Amino acid sequence: MIEIKRYSADMQQVWDNVVSDSRIDTFLFYRNFMDYHSHRFTDCSFIVFRKDKPEAVIPGNICNQIFYSHQGLTYGGLIATTKVSASNVLEIFDLLNTYLKTIGVSEVVYKPVPLIYHKIPSQEDVYALFRLGAEKIACNISSTIIQERKIPFIESRKSGIRKSKKESVYIVEDANPVDFWEILDNNLASNYGTKPVHTLDEIIHLKANFPNNIKIFTCKQGDTTIGGTVLFVMQQLVHVQYISASETGKFTGALDLLFDELINNRYKDKPIFDFGQSTEQMGHYLNESLIFQKEGFGGRGTVYEAYKYII
Prior knowledge:
Helix content: 25-40%
CATH class of the largest domain: Alpha Beta
Distance between the termini: 23 Å
Shape: elongated
CATH superfamily of the largest domain: Gcn5-related N-acetyltransferase (GNAT)
Strand content: 25-35%
Strand order of the largest sheet: 2-5-6-8-17-9-14-13-12-11-10
Number of strands: 17
């Protein structure tokens, strides 16, 4: 017998245990990560039980009578253990939709976990979406490197590495992101009129909670920070959350040196290196200069999708 229960704070350990045992390789679903911005969302997450044993979780929130999985996460959806079958997933969606209907929700926006985060295949939810007549509403493209079959850097990236070495640029793992965050803030504001998804205080808080998973590397020239990146590090995957460089950093090719170090040395034993999305407007706009940079390091396309269906 399968049943779903709405998540509450006293169920945190049960939730986290399911995430640890799941088929998905990410720390973003642990409640100490999800709940850093809980004040911004009305949580509506679920734990799935079979014969009273927890076997899946569904991170979610409700906004304007729409259920999202989850607006505060890049991806979400059903996070299941190996014991959950395809027919179980169809039943779980039936139970979820029945519950949501009773609380006045009529629409679901669902973001399945991209394939690169799967420890073993876990696309039963995408099949369930098809059965529900879901419409694909977003298709964002990321740039991903498979280390066993990586593509060599293009010449302009190699040239940047040589230049940065001549300019005495060096790389440090920096526990203090303040200087880098100033560069990131300035670039996002001037180029896109936006801010980072995380505030400086939030990233410091999250890094304290997940010191082995959130890594900050900066490029320096002398004592001055001229660029850097924030990485989310999983068991089999490294994901680039933020990249930015100052004008000096761009001139010296600092990011080329940085990603040469990260891809070819520091994280060469991680099977997958993902640069993140280069799209906006649900995937309808491609930032060609941004993806050119990522493809220059050997990244090729991985999609991050979203679906919508009516209950």
